[in-house]
From TrEMBL:
Domain of life (superkingdom): Bacteria
Protein name (database record): Histone deacetylase family protein
UniProt xrefs under Gene3D superfamilies: Histone deacetylase domain (3.40.800.20)
Coiled-coil portions: none
Keywords in alphabetical order: Hydrolase, Metal-binding, Zinc
Family as reported in the entry's similarity comment: Belongs to the histone deacetylase family.
Domain Histone deacetylase span(s) in chain numbering: 28-338
Cofactor(s) it depends on: Zn(2+)
Keyword Zinc: yes
Length: 344
């Protein structure tokens, strides 16, 4: 298995995080990448450094105006008087505004609200470079799988599966998993499956492929009635238009452990086999762990190992794209267990 990581991921150092009305330290820290990198070296899988993704490559799944905003946001914010150290929106257009023809303004504060879904995506001086580097890792992994088959792992930080085509959210700026899926599609695979096992619903990926019949999106995650992203991720969301029936959400009750989580994965695999994809993308989050600081589920290391065995048994060309997992003391071990089981 090849692995890919870009050093610019360490330049993203978010500090602002709002939780239940309290401002606290952000969990999406550079040490996450350090723990995962250490695991790769222990496994004998030193990562290759990819080229950072170009704006043109990012536009394969993202709106051009959104990419322009991300590239320029830190500079625009630096021009404000009496600003905080990071760009964070204090207002977002409401559904009523959008229904009445809301306009994206030129002012940086207005653009922040337009292009972000929440306050969990502060933008600092190195955010754009880190996001482009992470996206480059996902694209390089997809290219490796397309060329040689097998599987490849992309260490992507910041993560990506909450990012919509034109909106950041939930620590995510560029949807790395969607980029990998689209790259596999562009180079010849007719049908792609995205099987998301992060603890949070892959709402951005669902949104990007919502009305497409060539990409199946499956997400096993904590019940959004009590967990981020709150408003989507429910079982009744199945796609629209050409994508009708090509989205499967498998929400789990709070506290669900290995048996329930693995049973949901089995259900998703049944759907995947019926779809008969030619390639697979796995948004690989470790925040379903029983040791997660923002815990909702309770998956053990053995559970992640068994999930790897189930997914690897498909024997599809596969891109593993790192998503969440915020306990830096355990995520390296979980990656080791997952990749070791994948390669058996």
């Amino acid at each position: 298995m090849q692995s890919f990581a870009h050093p610019a991921q360490l330049r993203h150092t978010p500090r602002f995080f709002l939780q239940r009305g309290r401002v606290r330290a952000n969990f999406e820290v550079p040490e996450r990448a350090g723990a995962l990198l250490s695991a790769l070296y222990r496994l004998g899988l030193p990562p290759t450094e990819p080229e950072a993704a170009t704006p043109e490559a990012l536009r394969s799944v993202h709106d051009g105006g959104y990419i322009d905003f991300l590239e320029s946001a830190a500079r625009g914010w630096a021009g404000l008087q009496e600003r905080g150290e990071e760009a964070v929106a204090n207002m977002h257009p409401s559904p009523e505004m959008l229904a009445q023809g809301a306009t994206c303004p030129d002012a940086i504060i207005g653009r922040l609200g337009w292009y972000t879904a929440d306050t969990a995506c502060p933008i600092g001086p190195g955010t754009w470079e880190a996001a482009a580097g992470a996206a480059g890792a996902a694209l390089a992994a997809a290219d490796a799988v397309a060329s040689h088959g097998g599987s490849a792992y992309a260490l992507c930080r910041p993560p990506g599966h909450h990012a919509y085509a034109a909106r950041a959210g939930g620590h995510c700026y560029i949807n790395n998993s969607a980029l990998a899926a689209q790259r596999l599609r562009d180079v010849g695979a007719a049908r792609i499956a995205v099987f998301d096992i992060d603890a949070h619903h892959g709402n951005g990926t669902q949104g990007i492929f919502w009305d497409r019949g060539d990409v199946l999106t499956v997400s096993v995650h904590g019940d959004p009635s009590g967990y981020y992203p709150w408003y989507v991720g429910y079982a009744g969301e199945t796609g629209a238009g050409a994508g009708a029936g090509c989205n499967l959400n498998l929400p789990l009750r709070q506290g669900s452990r290995d048996d329930a989580w693995l049973a949901a994965i089995d259900t998703g695999l049944e759907k995947l086999r019926d779809f008969a994809p030619e390639a697979l993308v796995v948004p690989l989050g470790f925040d379903a762990s029983e040791h997660e600081p923002l815990s909702f589920l309770g998956v053990t290391a053995d559970g992640f190992s068994r999930a790897a065995e189930k997914l690897a048994a498909l024997k599809l060309p596969t891109v593993l794209v790192q998503e969440g997992g915020y306990n830096v003391e355990v995520i390296g071990t979980l990656l080791e267990r997952f990749l070791t089981s994948w390669g058996r």
